[in-house]
Amino acid sequence: MERISLGHGEGGELTHQLIHDVFIRSFDHGEQARLDAAIISSSSEQIAVSTDSYVVDPIFFPGGDIGKLAITGTVNDLAVTGAVPKVITAAFMIEEGFPIRDLKHIVKSMAQEAEKAEVKIIAGDTKVVERGSVDGIFITTTGIGAIEQSYLNPESMKKGDAVIINGTIGDHGIAILSARKQLGLMTNVTSDCASLNQLIQNILRRTKGIRAMRDLTRGGLATGLVELCEDFNSTMEIEEAALPIRDEVKGACEILGFDPVYLANEGKTVIIVDANEADLVLDILHKDEYGADACLIGHVTAVTEQTGKLKLKTPVNTTRRLSRLSGMVLPRIC
């Protein structure tokens, strides 16, 4: 009998199989399964809807906490579809004995981040369960955004399109691991946890050639790009030497045997854009606090009728194919 493993929650190949074999097959999501949020058309406008749950361990970490993470994660899932996030609902599952002081801190973080992102928390629910039934606190959110204009069309990706990321990768994963103190890893890395909706809207309103975006969370940069390649039959090549990685993250990965391209992020998006507008996008990013370290990391090399591939070009001029994250790197990362 097959059973759920921690690897099914890591955002990699096992997660992909679970979603497609169980949920998509049963709920008939169709084309919507390829996006970070579902697009719903009404008589007057389109809206985007996204639901997510947050079980991060520990609940307080350098750069944020589970409350801030719940808002930024929901906001970013909506933003990368081209939607303007408007409202969020939040449900709390709290373990008996959880400190009220910590709950107040978490809720305050949510309120502050929502205000910063210009979204409203409009409804919610609270359940308290017996001690041992939940590890402290879990939060589930649903976000709704309005698509004011259809900026994105992943189907329009073409050979030569630029692949851009708004900053360094792997920060959240290493920050969480350091906070756990399980492996004696001590770093000064803080989570990149941030709401990117205003940055993304600034880019979309000033450009015309954005093809697609992807919120890079579980499974990291590699998994996010593999999903785009496979879902939209595009082959991309990224350059290892061009990837923005902090020295502290590199050092931690060397010690622990991790590959930075598979580490989780919580304030990073990858942007596929017409090569003619790559410099403009980078200029916009560099003027924003959440895009100061943005860089061009690769290009779309082919668009075919067959399933696309993601390739990594190494500093010695060889290439290797990257796949989704396989197995478990860090459980309960978000």
TrEMBL record:
Classification via PANTHER family: CARBAMOYL DEHYDRATASE HYPE, HYDROGENASE ISOENZYMES FORMATION PROTEIN HYPE
Residues in PurM-like C-terminal domain copies: 158-307
Gene behind this protein: hypE
Segments crossing the lipid bilayer: none
PurM-like N-terminal domain ranges (all copies): 36-146
Taxonomy, superkingdom: Bacteria
Assigned protein family: Belongs to the HypE family.
Protein name from the UniProt record: Hydrogenase expression/formation protein HypE
CDD domains, per the entry: HypE (cd02197)
Originating species: Salipaludibacillus keqinensis
A GO BP annotation: protein maturation
InterPro entries documented for this protein: HypE, PurM-like_C_dom, PurM-like_C_sf, PurM-like_N, PurM-like_N_sf
